[in-house]
Design a protein that fits this description.
mainly alpha
């Protein structure tokens, strides 16, 4: 109903209000009640949240979905439910770029970058390159090798390490995680 009222408010200068009410199946008294009363606190909060969500989404270059946006809001001391974030993202038409699922290695015959059971497995490197491909390379299109080098370097140093929050690091950026790690006092063993 809210969308109908908003549309009517925008178009009442161009069309007769009685005609708009008939076309949209809205009572004139309902429209006037909505039009004259101030928006409720929840709608005002949602408007502000939509702006914050859009800012976070844009800063992430469209790569953050609802879990990361929810974490960013909490870090900004804005405590809302994840379902509310999902609803507001849907209203804004925001959809994070999906990460491609890794192929079934048994079906394709491909293997990990390292042998099975190797403690030096490159799962972290594989995850990084998957993220690089899905968040940066697919959005670039064709570019020269020099442009690609600049874009990848900026993405790694300017975004991935400095700003992008990682769920495996407790939703901190690598720089923030390292800073906290280096500035956390280590517990000394008890004397025996």
């Amino acid at each position: 109903m809210l969308e109908r009222y908003q549309f009517m408010a925008a178009e009442k200068a161009n069309f007769a209000l009685s005609w708009l009410c008939r076309q949209l199946g809205v009572a004139r008294s309902g429209f006037y009640r909505w039009f004259t009363q101030p928006p409720c606190a929840r709608h005002q909060q949602d408007k502000q949240l939509r702006e914050q969500i859009q800012t976070i989404f844009d800063a992430s270059r469209g790569s953050y979905g609802s879990p990361r946006i929810h974490q960013c809001l909490q870090q900004q001391e804005c405590f809302v439910s994840r379902k509310r974030v999902i609803r507001l993202m849907q209203q804004l038409g925001l959809v994070a770029r999906p990460h491609p699922r890794p192929p079934n290695r048994k079906a394709t015959g491909s293997d990990s970058m390292s042998r099975r059971g190797n403690c030096w497995d490159n799962a972290v490197a594989e995850s990084f390159f998957s993220t690089l491909k899905s968040e940066l390379l697919r959005s670039l299109g064709l570019c020269s090798p020099d442009q690609l080098h600049i874009q990848v370097a900026f993405w790694i140093e300017g975004f991935y390490n400095q700003q992008r929050i990682h769920s495996t690091l407790g939703y901190l950026s690598p720089v923030e995680f390292e800073h906290r790690y280096n500035h956390t006092p280590m517990a000394m063993p008890a004397p025996s």
